[in-house]
Design brief:
Length: 422
């Protein structure tokens, strides 16, 4: 198993470019199943979640050519609609293959999705929406089997603006008869990116980024070429890396308005952030406690940046409160940060962080993707050596975070711990 070894104390400086968004490419790969032509996607991050999704598409019969950060797909001849359980369980995002497979083949069989341990990850909103479009759903023995003659357009109100349910139902509606109207949808930038990709293939989707998305059913989709939007969570992580080390970093290939809530909160915490049209200059400063960070659906503060800002606020002068309103179980990084000397306590869905002058390097374990990134950030500024185990979680969403940070002067190494076969 691979580990990161970090010697804290280096101030980061230099320039870094952000790659395409993980939470765009994953639904867009699912959407490519709807195409009867060739699809090319640019700026694809080389992360393990993309590899898993491509393995699933390959099992379904999709032809794939992945060179560097460019991906070509041909989904014209799908051979099956059953997704291998082993692959399904590796990643939650596989659940939004249901929509495209129902749209294109009229049936799909999936096992319950896996994913990070950040709380129960129900799929009731996905299934309720599909059933209202005429899909028959059978849940038994840990599998969900769904089939539909022709999907019919429907008006669906989501009880919660779920990102995955919004994307799944958008894709299921592409070939449905008539109009589908989705209310109380997620408004994340990745939803807009998915709409733009679908419309380039000939779909008729309107309203992504607002509370209501309307889809007019069509008969078929062509190929398309699409460049992903930059990954706003990787960008936010690098902003914190610059701030936590009191460094000075230029972050290129970003869309500042996608980061508005993050930039605003990090300025409140004392970082100096200068915006340009597609880049930021970040300078550190004295970290100040922030009375309230509350994660919310977009455009609120993103839950995917909650562990990272908590690492920063561990060094703040003063007390901070972070409330996690989106996921029930997204505090697994707190124990690990406290092993490094952070003083964080939990009251229900809120974490109270009493800032300390320094954290100390320690042996810690990445419990999930963003929690792992938070431990890297804490280690960059800790006194001494931090050893982070289970870095495969970090590789799910960051294309070589260690190399990105090394480029900016961090003393971080990836080591291959011996696998002891007992
Ligand atoms: C997407 O997950 C992202 N993943 C997550 O990013 C992100 O944290 C999340 O949206 C929220 O922004 C991808 O896009 C691949 P949700 P998703 O459905 O779609 C409840 C990362 O680190 N819910 O918006 O699974 C659910 O329990 C990952 O990059 C239901 O109750 O998130 C949760 O409390 C982590 N029923 C809330 O909604 C449902 O049917 C938000 O979940 C679906 C969701």
């Amino acid at each position: 198993m691979e580990k990161f070894v970090i010697e804290g104390g280096e101030r980061l400086s230099g320039k870094i470019r952000i790659t395409g968004a993980k939470n765009s490419i994953l639904p867009i790969l699912a959407a490519s199943l709807l195409s009867s032509g060739k699809v090319r996607i640019e700026d694809v991050p080389r992360i393990s979640d993309v590899k898993v999704m491509l393995d699933i598409l390959e099992c379904l019969g999709v032809k794939i050519d992945w060179k560097e950060n460019s991906l070509e797909l041909d989904a014209d001849s799908l051979s099956t609609s059953e997704i291998p359980e082993k692959l399904m369980c590796e990643m939650r995002s596989s659940i939004f293959l249901m929509g495209p497979l129902l749209g294109k083949l009229g049936k799909v069989k999936v096992s319950y999705p896996g994913g990070c341990a950040i709380g129960p990850r129900p799929i009731d909103l996905h299934l309720k929406g599909l059933i209202s479009m005429g899909v028959e759903v059978v849940e038994e023995n840990g599998y969900v089997s769904a089939k539909a003659g022709t999907l019919k357009g429907s008006t669906i109100h989501l009880d919660f603006p779920s990102v995955g349910a919004t994307e799944n139902l958008m894709m299921a509606a592409i070939y449905a008869k008539g109009f589908t109207r989705l209310h109380n949808v997620a408004k994340e930038p990745e939803i807009v990116d998915l709409q733009n990709f679908l419309n380039k293939m000939g779909a008729r989707v309107r309203g992504a980024g607002t509370d209501i998305i309307t889809i007019e059913g069509v008969k078929s989709l062509d190929g398309a070429v699409h460049r992903l939007i930059p990954d706003r969570i990787i960008a936010g992580t690098m902003i914190v890396a610059a701030g936590i080390t009191d460094g000075e970093v230029i972050i290129e290939n970003i869309i500042p308005e996608h980061l508005e809530a993050v930039i605003s909160k990090l300025r409140e915490a004392g970082l100096e952030i200068l915006e340009d049209s597609d880049s930021l200059m970040v300078r550190g400063g004295k970290i100040k406690g922030v009375n309230s960070v509350r994660t919310l659906p977009y455009p609120g503060f993103p839950t995917d940046m909650q562990p990272q800002i908590m690492a920063l606020l561990s060094y703040a002068d003063g007390i901070s409160v972070v409330k996690e309103s989106v996921f029930e179980g997204r505090f697994s990084h707190i124990n690990e940060l406290n092993k490094m000397g952070a003083q964080i306590t939990v009251q229900e869905r809120s974490a109270i962080i009493k800032g300390v002058n320094n954290l100390k390097g320690a042996k810690v374990k990445a419990p999930d993707l963003r929690a792992g990134a938070a431990l890297v950030l804490a280690g960059l500024s800790a006194q001494g050596t931090t050893l982070i185990d289970e870095v495969h979680y970090i590789d799910r969403g960051y294309e070589r975070l260690d190399l990105m940070l090394q480029k900016l002067g961090a003393n971080i190494k990836r080591v291959h711990a011996p696998v002891i076969n007992v």
